[in-house]
Amino acid sequence: MTKQEIASMIDHTLLAPQAGVSEIENLCKEAAENHFASVCVNPSYVELSAELLKGSGVKVCTVIGFPLGATPSVVKAFETRKTIQDGADEVDMVINVGAARDGRFSEVGKDIADVVDAARDEGKKLNKSIVVKVILETCYLSDQAIESCCLCAKKAGADFVKTSTGFAILKDKDGKLLPNGATAHHVELMRKTVGKDMGVKASGGVRTSKAALEMVEAGANRIGTSSGIAILKDFE
After folding, report:
1. Candidate list 11, 86, 92, 111, residue with the active-site label
2. 162 labelled catalytic
3. Which of 59, 76, 133, 201 is catalytic?
């Protein structure tokens, strides 16, 4: 895989709550210079990012119900509409993880569908095709639950399923922090479940070219990372 091929798969990400305007400006500059797929920013920076990236070919991606996914569906739908009005081209929504763990997949499906419907409706008004990605937070879910959530996303008409927020806190019985991001196993499972017609985004802990290529080999066609520049340097 070439440097430009991997760059075209990267969502150049800055979702830290303390990020300021200068950091967003730099993020967008790096994305334009390296021809990344998108920048992924918090909703409050969508309008700024859209202005900075106008004409660059780089999309503006934002997050919905982030990072917990526990907000009501109607709020996620409103947030989706607002961010699209502000200039978002792609939205990455977090599912109701608790509902998924309980096996309440009809609720999971409705939550996703509400966001997809809002994105399609708002995009139509603006003559834009909005990409919807569904964040599962895989570290909290069993393989069976991951499969069920993928099927919910597919039924709802989402474009991608995505592994993680990168903000989950998972601990063992002794309180030691455990990995909370993408794994090749989960990416492979997600790809197998959704088939070839949906996208799979690996995010959380993908910081090197080796890790990125491992995710692509497992079936990912989009990589969410704050380490996009470091990943590309490995190709030089």
Report:
1. 92
2. yes
3. 201
Q: What is the per-residue pLDDT across 21-62, written as a single tens digit (0 to 9) for each?
A: 999 999 999 999 999 999 999 999 999 999 999 999 999 999
133 is catalytic: no
201 among known catalytic residues: yes
Q: Do residues 183 and 191 touch, judged by C-beta distance below 8 A?
A: no
